[in-house]
Amino acid sequence: MSTQLPAHDSIVFFNGSLMPEKDVGIPIRDRGFIYGDAVFDATRTFGGRTFRLKEHIQRLYNSLRYLRIDPGLDPAEMERWSLEVVNHNHPLLPPGQDMWVMQRISRGVESSEPGAAEQPTVLIESHAIPFARRATLYRDGISVVTPSVPRIPPRFLSPRAKTHNYLNLIMGDLEVRDTDPNAWSVLLDEAGNLTEGRGSNIFLVKDGTVTTPRGQFVLEGITRGVVLDLAAGLGLPVAETDLDLYDAYTADEAFLTSTSLCVCPIGKVNGAAIGQGTVPGPVTQQLMTAFSDLAGMDYVEQYLAHLPS
Amino acid sequence: MSTQLPAHDSIVFFNGSLMPEKDVGIPIRDRGFIYGDAVFDATRTFGGRTFRLKEHIQRLYNSLRYLRIDPGLDPAEMERWSLEVVNHNHPLLPPGQDMWVMQRISRGVESSEPGAAEQPTVLIESHAIPFARRATLYRDGISVVTPSVPRIPPRFLSPRAKTHNYLNLIMGDLEVRDTDPNAWSVLLDEAGNLTEGRGSNIFLVKDGTVTTPRGQFVLEGITRGVVLDLAAGLGLPVAETDLDLYDAYTADEAFLTSTSLCVCPIGKVNGAAIGQGTVPGPVTQQLMTAFSDLAGMDYVEQYLAHLPS
Amino acid sequence: MSTQLPAHDSIVFFNGSLMPEKDVGIPIRDRGFIYGDAVFDATRTFGGRTFRLKEHIQRLYNSLRYLRIDPGLDPAEMERWSLEVVNHNHPLLPPGQDMWVMQRISRGVESSEPGAAEQPTVLIESHAIPFARRATLYRDGISVVTPSVPRIPPRFLSPRAKTHNYLNLIMGDLEVRDTDPNAWSVLLDEAGNLTEGRGSNIFLVKDGTVTTPRGQFVLEGITRGVVLDLAAGLGLPVAETDLDLYDAYTADEAFLTSTSLCVCPIGKVNGAAIGQGTVPGPVTQQLMTAFSDLAGMDYVEQYLAHLPS
Amino acid sequence: MSTQLPAHDSIVFFNGSLMPEKDVGIPIRDRGFIYGDAVFDATRTFGGRTFRLKEHIQRLYNSLRYLRIDPGLDPAEMERWSLEVVNHNHPLLPPGQDMWVMQRISRGVESSEPGAAEQPTVLIESHAIPFARRATLYRDGISVVTPSVPRIPPRFLSPRAKTHNYLNLIMGDLEVRDTDPNAWSVLLDEAGNLTEGRGSNIFLVKDGTVTTPRGQFVLEGITRGVVLDLAAGLGLPVAETDLDLYDAYTADEAFLTSTSLCVCPIGKVNGAAIGQGTVPGPVTQQLMTAFSDLAGMDYVEQYLAHLPS
Amino acid sequence: MSTQLPAHDSIVFFNGSLMPEKDVGIPIRDRGFIYGDAVFDATRTFGGRTFRLKEHIQRLYNSLRYLRIDPGLDPAEMERWSLEVVNHNHPLLPPGQDMWVMQRISRGVESSEPGAAEQPTVLIESHAIPFARRATLYRDGISVVTPSVPRIPPRFLSPRAKTHNYLNLIMGDLEVRDTDPNAWSVLLDEAGNLTEGRGSNIFLVKDGTVTTPRGQFVLEGITRGVVLDLAAGLGLPVAETDLDLYDAYTADEAFLTSTSLCVCPIGKVNGAAIGQGTVPGPVTQQLMTAFSDLAGMDYVEQYLAHLPS
Amino acid sequence: MSTQLPAHDSIVFFNGSLMPEKDVGIPIRDRGFIYGDAVFDATRTFGGRTFRLKEHIQRLYNSLRYLRIDPGLDPAEMERWSLEVVNHNHPLLPPGQDMWVMQRISRGVESSEPGAAEQPTVLIESHAIPFARRATLYRDGISVVTPSVPRIPPRFLSPRAKTHNYLNLIMGDLEVRDTDPNAWSVLLDEAGNLTEGRGSNIFLVKDGTVTTPRGQFVLEGITRGVVLDLAAGLGLPVAETDLDLYDAYTADEAFLTSTSLCVCPIGKVNGAAIGQGTVPGPVTQQLMTAFSDLAGMDYVEQYLAHLPS
Hints:
9 helices; alpha+beta; 309 residues; six-stranded antiparallel β-sheet; homohexamer; 15 strands; globular
């Protein structure tokens, strides 16, 4: 498949065809806008190659199923168009950069006629990962703060579906960042267990065991799954289990994972240094190295290359 | 203020100026779209005149404050531009119709640069109320079903802020409407108390007392407030209190309120007829009449005029 | 042991002896009637032979222990009298039919004298399974709806004891059946996890793994245990775990189990088709076949033989 | 209406007619027996005269409505038959005694045919109040213990409906009485607030204010309502509000109310003496006197007359 | 009563007599130390005169009652000894200073013999209020942060009893102060409602109404009660009600009260400025003035006099 | 290291040195006293030899970390000083006796100066185990009662940290012991699961499987861990899992573990006999024997030797 779109413009897939990104707008009565009635997923590239794209798209279709939205494309088509977008847009980035490719599907424009079927809105777009903004995190460790707003539990809206309803996580961010602009929020659940940050999963390491919150209460990150596999492959005991602030404060090491962060060490939780206070700890370092090997690229070096000199 | 926009086109206010609606799209990385990180409010017209516009805008500014978004306009400007939109667009409707005017403010396009300030996206638009689709409700009463998904409680995200995160309410709707396409969902809270439907408040009448759920757990509808005032003015005892399914099943009468519905009788809750099974009950009828008087127009007649013949 | 009771009458065991069913009534002040202060268990026959009777009676004695009722008979006697009832009553059924045999023990008649010991009421009775009423379920799949009333959690009254207090489950049924008369209710718990229906357990199948809610939150069905064993015997991964509506909506297959249903496929949950929408799915079919093999009879055929022609 | 029933036998109303009590049994598959799927109410007599019978029957019909049972009789008929039972049976009591008259309505015998309508079972019966067993309570005060099993909250099954599902309250009783045979249980709710005992409401008095738990969480006793009215009539501040063990332990006085107890002082809660440790306290005494005046009989004297000599 | 203690030493009351503070130590197995099994109360002086001492002591005796500790002194004695301590110690302070006087009663030394009665430990001591450390709060407003650790609800341990178990509040403080050393924590409850800080109550002002959390969920501060009375006396509507972060973020004004702070304005909650961002707001100012009038001393001036020059 | 302290006096380690116990008092403003802001741990001796001292000290340092207290000593020093205290004090006991050695570290004296660092208070002391008071427990079994006050859940204050805040457990004890002076309280959690008693863990045995509540909700006793290991070593299936009163009432055996009790059989729970009513049951007996073997001493015999003759 080839596209005749201008090579110097970023393109997107929008409702069936590739278009210059600058020509696309979301209808003002699209339910994705007025209600956040939409799902998305995000894959990152390493040197321009997507990583675990199929798994991300599988998760996207579970999100769609949860919201009873039929995207009108099957997973193979979704994957193919995503690669088209990457292949066109990645060469437009400066050298050494990488990007996310995101699929976003809303239920479509609010219908005004009784019984009128909604046509889903389907968008596939890409944009650059902000390496420079995050570089110091790999040197100093992330400062995690647990805000007072808890994560919405599954019975109200499952965190396993990746939707356009992010206000609960954003309320956590606002609370934390207006107190400490450099802190990252990780929300507790109603039982006081750690859940997730905005787009990230948290891991603790204690006495050599690698643990992370149970899958029912968080978006089950693809990177989270990769790291659990890597840890098992390294012979480390792993567990998906309830973890609370006692676990965090007494942990030896801690780190966040996300599609773009991969594995990034945590330095402090609520102002208390984790473990001996140096990052990354030895187990975290092992996992970072193993992840780079798997991704085929030293992703930590890519981040650290953006440190302010 | 005058506008030179084509008289035959609906217009909207968008980021500082009036524009033809057809020319406006939401940026694909607007946080209102990708996160539902936005607030809105909606006022209706009666014969082209807005009703309680100031109160709606005051609630809008409380929603903004809750999300820490500065819209860049003060309430008086927001009101003025809203009236401009109404004054231009209402004459475009067929005779006898009315509409909503809605203000929508998002935090703006996701910034990619560190520390870059976000510019809010501000939209004011109007659209027609679907009288025909709803006409039978005033004749037969609404069939309310309480879905198994409960309403998100205030500690996770306050229902008092009217935001673009509607998925919890939509999950309730999907559950109910795929079982009974004509039913309206009203969600319970985690304690089993009635909360609200998608955009509506519920009232019960028992032994002459008019009750509605407490304001902390619902969007405090402007119409809800008007009805509480009207009931008090009619000498009826009123209470904002916890109401559960025992209250609903043993009530004498029940009704929903919303900006566009005003007061509309409920016929059944979960398949059980309310009271003697005829709608509207006498207290509901009193309130409907009083509301029409206040609105300066027989809104029930306006709905019933659209009954299929 | 032989009984001299009229061969043409159904008999029951009542407080120590076998009697014609028509001669037995429960005292009006029996605590089983006025408080539901009683326990029961139910075994079904396959071609007149009881299945897992010992396990059912063991569960019955756990229920008794939970309520601190001493039935005055030991488990072996309870089993022996149950078989007497079956052996007398099964021949009275039309050919090809089967039945439940149920033990019911209440704390006895409310004592009016201080300190008077209560004498338990012990009843063993049988009655026919309504094959005709359920035949279409095996062809079309069950339509499951989760009502808004949640299942009473163990801390208030343990669902593991099979008692005469069924109103919570009945409230769920009323809510669901007055909306859709053909739907079966499965209640959620307070965390939004699936629990059980009135007398049935629910299973999901996803990516080949067979899952069912944890035993603490449901009556641990004997058939549920059999199916877990059968699945393991077939080499399928099994798990007793928390399952919510996200799991149900994204499952590949789903089915209910009960003493009389054995394994019966689910077609829809809250109006959303499960998996590809055809029933039974392949794993469910495997389990149905395995169950028939174990029961020594094609129970599905027995149901389907009652389909209206 | 006259009845030709033997004057020396207690009679009951059963499914449409008056019958000797000894001739009546509940069918073994009556849903009132097998599921506790039934409601009831209980009125007491004072010198043979019923007290607040109309209010009890009104509450009965609310319970019926909650369970969607149609008794086939209207409230006036239910009242008339209740009086028939009283008028026949009260003269059979020894002198100076009084009794309860109870209406019990179940959904009827479990139907075995699809779509067969259930016929409700309607029973009205009376029996003597155990004055002797309770006499010491009025002298010494009741010893209240709060068991660890909490009261089922309204979202699972409303305590405002008086049903045949009493196991939650009975579990509380068993726990308490097997530790202290003379103690009465009053269950806490899930928030640790006092709710009710088996058939009784609790009141606290502090600094002259009379308080009792909120009506949504308990059966709203008719006597409870009478006492609130009496207290208000005596010029005492009254409140229906959340009350926890801090309130109980720091109260000046406490008492239970029920249809048969009327007002009875509490001496201890969980082994801690209430107030100054003498019963009844002055406010309780005022209310006991006022209740006797209203009932037209010194009910405390009636109880104390049964003290062992 | 006169004491012969050295005038230049602070004294305390300890287990029956006045002693130099420097001579007193708590036994190492005192339950007040090893379990926090003790209660206390604290009154402040204004120009050396105690304020509402009787009310503080009444609250102390409710706390004792809740824990079933008998102090061996009656309230009048407790008050008299407290005044002795104040009268001796206040003259030892520098001019212009004031102090707390605190009663602390533990259950006494852990008994090692079976059945040995515990002897309570009774301590009355005083110490200086840190005016200098707090002076800027009155100029800039307090920065309140709600930590992720919620306040222990009443069912586990009532906050209305002022005990030596402060770790829950201290965990909140640690979380907040290691992020922002100048912030004060105010804990939310499990429903997300504001409760209290370590020793302080929170008030919000919105549209002229003065509100504070309900008394069941906080230590009901004596100053809190005074302020509610003062507000009512000024003709302001007051309410004790559930208040959450939506209320805080949309409030016009906010302030803390405590025995030593009296009324002190809040400037920010979780980094968001309250109201127009200037402190104190007009209603808060009114209440501060009224409090000074009642205390007979300009307490704000006393604080501000300690501002660093 | 040698100490020159009087041989006939018990000694303690206090803030850096060994001292006669009688010379030590806790400062009246020590946060360990006024707030319970302190942690501790307790090891017992068997024939004068400490058991698992290193594990206890490791747990102590986790508790310190949770509360952000730096004791100023490392674990090896803490262990060494603890042994010094034991070695000096154990010979002072009568023959055949044993004792606890306890480390207690508080945050130190409340600082009155802004920014002043707190100096922790460090105490190591020992005292005799009350064998005589407990001897009958090993003969008759412990009578366990679950009070209505539930255990504080981890989100408010983690039970895994062993702190000086014991009032929640003490409230449970008061409630139980003022009803039955010989009963031991074991608190439920908010979900109705068994947690722990004051200083003890509970185990159930059912069908040969040994179970105990999950570690997140209790202090993870060192003895609890030893018993889990012993059971596994004996080939018994073990599980850390949620256990409620249904499990307790239907268990075959039950026992408590603690540092000083080791393994002690439970005879009744809430007045209901466990299993066949004889103690210890066979599995419990196996574990008691195995524990004695491990401790190098028949600890049961040591207890039973103190039975009243």
